[in-house]
Amino acid sequence: MQTKTGVTEVGKPPEKLKHNNGSYLSTKLSVLMVSTYPPDTDGIASYTARLGSALRNDGVRIIIAANDRDWKRNSPYYIFSIIQKSIKSKTKIVHIQLSYFMFGNEYYTGLFPLLELGLKLLDKRVVITLHDIVQKSNLKGSFLKNHTKPGFLSLKRWALEYYTRIVCSIADRIIVHSQVAQNVLAQDYQVPIKKTQVISHGIDQSPFKANKDSCKINFLKNKDQQIVTYFGLVRNGKGLEDLVQAWKKLKNVNAQLLIIGGKHPTLQDRCHENLSKMVKELRLESSIRFVGYVPDELLPAFLAESDVFVLPYNEWGDVIASSGALSILAPYLKPIIATDVPAFIHLKNTGAALIIKKGDIDGLASAIMKVLSDGRTRNSLTNALSKWLPESSWSVVARKTISLYRELL
Q: In which band, very low, low, confident or very high, does the pLDDT at 257 lie, cut at 50, 70 and 90?
């Protein structure tokens, strides 16, 4: 996913922070944030850059401990590297942006509680944002096979359940992006509600402006064609196979489908190769284009020229997570078609997207046809989207996050 890169250490002059006991701390609020980070291209890297920028605007000093710079994935030494960074930074709060297997395969992931314990021994306040959660009923072989080596799946199911419980029990506070995620932690993993806080995923409020050179892009064969765009990682679980099959069902539509994005930086699958093969077998090469990764300065031109955005995810009924792609697409105020997975629950509740059942290929085809051909539907969707955007601005997310930090201090 494309990102707007952020600075590594940001902040304003010191401010006085009031403790619960009435005393004052005469240093500014300072946080070490552990995460993947641009130039990494995953969604958490983009999230962290945007959150860091919003926190900076509210006067928080943010120090980033980034993958491939401050610590290394698939190495046990990430624990020592992050602890060393926390000591050097002299921050009281360590905020970890966590997803399953962010630190590597199942063996290195299993070491993560040792990092938490090390930070606690140093008297750090540990905040964890859980970017994905799996319900116990969905801890099936298919999920584990996609993310771990084959074998010992029953043992891994048990280990992943207790790993989640242990991680949450050690942390001082857990941030999740939805009420659904909070409920799953409470019901499936016995995490007390009072220990978790729902802070929605931030949404950009205005589209990024295109670089002057981007106007030279001529990616449309026919200027009369409408453009339907998928933006995000090209990997299993994003429903791209459903999208290609749905595209085949469209009749008498002068439109082009753009698939913008590339492979996941760490997950290994053959989604891109299989999609390319499917497009050729269905003879759709003339109307489906794989754009690949687009530089940040050129991406706005593609998104601004799009008529419809489609997010056909079919995995995220099992994995409860938010969509980083949505946060980038939404401010362009184009009609959005999405599936009924937890990532888009807010869009469903506000009518800010046309929601279809995940895996429903015929429904997806009908939705695309309806949005392309019905101006009233397009206007209704974009009006609802424009009203919803301010509720999830990064400034709102930053203020709620700062409030949590101050409670811990």
A: very high
Q: Where on the phi/psi map is residue 372: left (φ > 0), alpha (ψ -120 to 50), or beta?
A: alpha
- Cα angle: 290, vertex 248, 227; to 5 degrees: 50
Give the DSSP H or E segment for 204.
none
pLDDT on residue 316? 53
Considering the domain architecture, whether residues 55 and 107 belong to the same structural domain is answered as yes
Lowest average pLDDT, out of 98-107, 152-161, 335-344, goes to 152-161
List, as one string, the DSSP characters of 12-69: -S---EE-TTS-EE-S--EEEEEE--TTS-SHHHHHHHHHHHHHHHTT-EEEEEEBTT
**pLDDT value of position 262:** 83
**Residue 4 located in a structural domain:** no
Phi then psi dihedrals of residue 368, to 5 deg: -60, -45
The domain in which residue 160 lies consists of 9-202+393-408
In a shared domain, residues 197 and 86 = yes
Q: Are 261 and 238 in contact (CB under 8 A)?
A: no
pLDDT the model gives residue 151: 63
Q: Which two tokens stand for residue 237?
A: 């679980």
Question: Are 187 and 316 members of one domain?
Answer: no
- Calpha distance 236→223 (Å, rounded): 32
Measure the CA–CA gap between 54 and 29, rounded to whole angstroms.
14
**Residue 298 in contact with residue 217, Cβ under 8 Å?**
yes
Torsion over CA: 166, 172, 175, 181 (sign): positive
Q: What is the distance of C-alpha 273 from the center of its chain? A: 24
